[in-house]
């Protein structure tokens, strides 16, 4: 008996030693890694720059420690190419053992990584991409950006109420453009209007000229446009070169076309353009004034809607870790994020517990001069708008 107990004691001591060895690497893991994959070069680099600056600002303002864990942000450039995004995500999961995947500057980049999030049970925070169906690609996806149907219905309603009977549509030929085209047409048609022509333009190296000639010949009441962030300047230049700004055809768009990164450089020709979107740097709230001031100081440019997606994505990560007391189990983190509500620089937002998509205000805005610079000035609000595609399911 005695010797058995003595043996057990020795065993317990040995086991204790083994446990200490086992916990040694765990202690070293007091860091929680966030893999932030963004287009930092190439035609969509402004998206990457905006989100990176916002994520870094969030960490600088809130501190790099949350729930006892040190947050380490690992930023990787995917150049906007889906194969590269997938490879980087794989490396971040296997080599760096990240607890979160985040970023995703374009829809195809989010689609490329969704299966990896599912297999590895890793929360994937979509901070930019905006095709409605993205959140359905994995139960580990949550979104802090927006969806195109969500922001398009605001401008369609405005058009219907402001005498626009016949409209043409021009969208980039991929997920978000197709979502925007359908949402605009459905909503305008339901209100008694008509879409008389629909054109899809390639995402890469778009040439708007042939289509703008058609618009000029047809003279609809309005032209509705979606192009992704950063491309709006090229569109506006060609719109003006064709004389369409003086043709009586009203230019209406989602706020992607007039994003804060580029709107001031569009010049006075852009004045009066009506758009709807979820964020403007001119949004009138204390939270936004503080955000714009801090961001502009840190990054030397105005924040656009991509920045606010990055900022709120970091908020979601921080708050989820607080709820799990720093535990990094992917399923527990996703559960912690569901239903979360907070006040963003864009206004009040929440994560729908069922769809894991964002619910937020959508604002109708007009380009005006504020202190000599062009801004999207909000003048009406649709409150707490879900993604209408999923709400209708
Ligand atoms: C997407 C990208 C953008 O830059 C944008 O403004 C809207 C949508 C996308 O690829 O999902």
Structure notes:
- The protein is α/β, with parallel strands linked by helices and 393 residues long.
- The N terminus is likely disordered.
- The site of 3,4-dihydroxybenzoic acid has 12 residues, from helix 6.
Strand and helix map with partners:
Elements: H1 2-28, E1 31-38, H2 45-62, E2 65-66, E3 69-77, H3 82-94, E4 100-103, H4 107-120, E5 124-126, E6 141-143, H5 148-161, E7 166-172, H6 175-190, E8 194-201, H7 209-218, E9 222-226, H8 232-241, E10 250-254, E11 274-277, H9 286-299, H10 305-323, H11 330-337, E12 341-344, E13 347-351, E14 358-370, E15 373-385, H12 388-391
Parallel strand pairs: 1-3, 1-4, 4-5, 5-6, 7-8, 7-9, 9-10, 10-11
Antiparallel strand pairs: 2-3, 11-14, 12-13, 13-14, 14-15
Bound molecules: 3,4-dihydroxybenzoic acid (DHB).
Span between termini: 68 Å
Question: Low-confidence stretches at least 5 residues in length (pLDDT < 50)?
Answer: 1-7, 15-29
Largest sheet: 9 strands, mixed
Ligand species: 3,4-dihydroxybenzoic acid
Determine the structural class based on helices, strands and strand pairing.
Answer: alpha/beta
Instruction: Calculate the mean pLDDT score and round it.
Output: 93
Anisotropy-based shape:
globular
What labels describe this entry?
393 residues; alpha/beta; nine-stranded mixed beta sheet; six-stranded mixed beta sheet; disordered N terminus; binds 3,4-dihydroxybenzoic acid
């Amino acid at each position: 008996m005695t010797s058995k107990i003595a043996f057990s004691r020795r065993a317990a001591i040995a086991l204790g030693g083994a446990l200490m060895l086992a916990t040694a690497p765990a202690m070293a893991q007091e860091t929680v890694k966030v893999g932030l994959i963004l287009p930092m070069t190439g035609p969509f680099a402004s998206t990457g720059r905006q989100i990176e600056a916002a994520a870094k600002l969030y960490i600088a303002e809130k501190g790099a420690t949350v729930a006892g864990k040190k947050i380490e942000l690992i930023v990787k450039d995917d150049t906007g190419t889906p194969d590269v995004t997938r490879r980087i995500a794989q490396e971040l999961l296997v080599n760096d053992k990240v607890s979160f995947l985040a970023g995703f500057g374009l829809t195809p980049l989010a689609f490329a990584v969704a299966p990896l999030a599912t297999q590895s049970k890793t929360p994937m925070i979509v901070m930019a991409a905006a095709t409605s169906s993205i959140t359905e690609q994995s139960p580990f996806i949550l979104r802090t950006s927006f969806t195109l149907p969500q922001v398009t219905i605001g401008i369609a309603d405005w058009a219907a109420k402001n005498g626009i009977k016949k409209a043409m549509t021009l969208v980039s030929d991929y997920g978000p453009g197709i979502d925007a085209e359908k949402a605009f047409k459905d909503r305008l048609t339901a209100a008694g209007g008509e879409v008389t022509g629909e054109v899809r333009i390639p995402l890469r190296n778009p040439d708007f000229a042939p289509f703008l000639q058609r618009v000029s010949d047809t003279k609809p009441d309005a032209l509705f446009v979606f192009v992704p962030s950063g491309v709006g300047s090229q569109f506006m230049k060609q719109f003006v070169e064709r004389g369409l700004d003086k043709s009586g055809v009203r230019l209406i768009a989602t706020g992607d076309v007039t994003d804060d990164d580029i709107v001031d450089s569009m010049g006075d020709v852009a004045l009066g353009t009506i758009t709807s979107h979820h964020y403007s740097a001119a949004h009138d709230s204390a939270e936004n004034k503080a955000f714009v001031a801090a961001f502009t100081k840190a990054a030397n440019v105005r924040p656009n809607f991509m920045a606010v997606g990055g900022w709120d994505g970091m908020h979601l990560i921080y708050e989820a870790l607080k709820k799990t007391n720093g535990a990094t189990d992917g399923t527990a983190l996703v559960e912690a994020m569901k239903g979360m509500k907070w006040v963003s620089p864009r206004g009040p937002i929440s994560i729908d517990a069922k769809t894991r998509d964002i619910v937020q205000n959508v604002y109708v805005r007009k380009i005006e001069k504020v202190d000599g610079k062009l801004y999207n000035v909000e003048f009406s609000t649709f409150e707490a708008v879900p993604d209408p595609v999923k709400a209708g399911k």
